[in-house]
Amino acid sequence: MEQNTERLALLTLEEAHDLLGLLLVIAQEGGPVSPEADRLAREIAARIPSEN
User: Fold this and answer.
1) Integer Cα distance of 49 and 52 in angstroms
2) Other C-beta atoms lying within 10 Å of the C-beta of residue 41
3) Do residues 23 and 41 make contact, with C-beta atoms less than 8 angstroms apart?
4) What is the reported pTM?
5) What is the dihedral of CA 31, 45, 11, 24, to 10 degrees?
């Protein structure tokens, strides 16, 4: 079976930091997706340079 899928463009550093910030807010809210948001935030933070 042939797959005709396209990958999305890579995030810019600014977009990655925006996504990280959003995930951190979701993680802190304590809702049902908080553990997954926290896990993803930690994974992203480990892969991108800090904003400072």
Assistant:
1) 8
2) 20
3) yes
4) 0.77
5) 20
